Amino acid sequence: MHPGQAEDRPTWQPMGEIQFEETSCPICHSDNAILRYTKNIRGYPMKYYICSRCRALYANPRAGFDSLKKIYASADFFEGGEPGGEHLNYFNFIGGEKYLRKTARDRLSRIQRYCKSGKMLEGASAAGFFLAEAKTAGFEVTGVEISAPMAEYASKRWSVDVIPESIEQISLPEQEYDVIATWGLMTIIRDPIALIRKFHQSLKPGGIWAFNTYYYDGWWSKLFGSRWQILVINFSQIYTKKLILEIVRREGFRLLSRRRDYPHTDLLKVADQMSWNLSAPWLARLIRSSRISNLIIRVPLPDVMEYIWQKV
Description:
Largest sheet: 7 strands, mixed
Shape: globular
Distance between the termini: 47 Å
Order of helices and strands: EEEEEHHHEHEHEEHEHEHEEHHEE
Number of strands: 15
Strand order of the largest sheet: 8-7-6-9-10-15-12
Strand content: 25-35%
Mean pLDDT: 95
């Protein structure tokens, strides 16, 4: 049996109906905001506002925490169906293992410029591909993954400790880790400032925090508006280019590296994302029927940056 075949996949749980909650700005907690986008996702009317104080873009109402756990534990989220279709986020996350692991190796090479080995924590570790590569590179790894099926899958497959809980809910030991990595996390957490402080406390002096995140004050959001594929049902907030730098520095980190996120992917994944942005599902169907659908390429992501910070 090869990894990724049906018998090796997570045991998904039913998602059920999503419940929503009203919220203020998750970053500065202001209630003063201007409506920017509206969007219907599987019958759920979503609204996205710009905070008048800190300029963050956030969802209000947003999915409640209990609903989030069910979303992440479901096949609807990680194996949502046909490329280009109306899936909640991924059409086949585990199927992207090859290019996701290539991306992980690239990211590790940049982290290791500042920290060669030691204890590493990954928040939102999903199927554990980054953990697997970090373990091979010599790190002592631990993952935290809110999706219980994914946490179990990753833990068994890679023989690593993956805690089935939200990185925001779990308690972390103080001055424990040499590196914390969080890929794709910063737009979906509920209280960014509290989490940044938690990471600072949990890192050893001089420890490294690496992450990537979107910003909305670029041309990508202006070009696609509410069709922008990052505006998903589990979304919480997106920062401006200035805001993300301000809030991380304020909590005691020094910026070591900032670069355009340039991950590996395949043409089918690119076609899926563009199908969302352009409302053109035929594009994904066209690429899927071609012989080059699984061709792996690197794509400089518009309005997404990779950061490496050091605790000071």
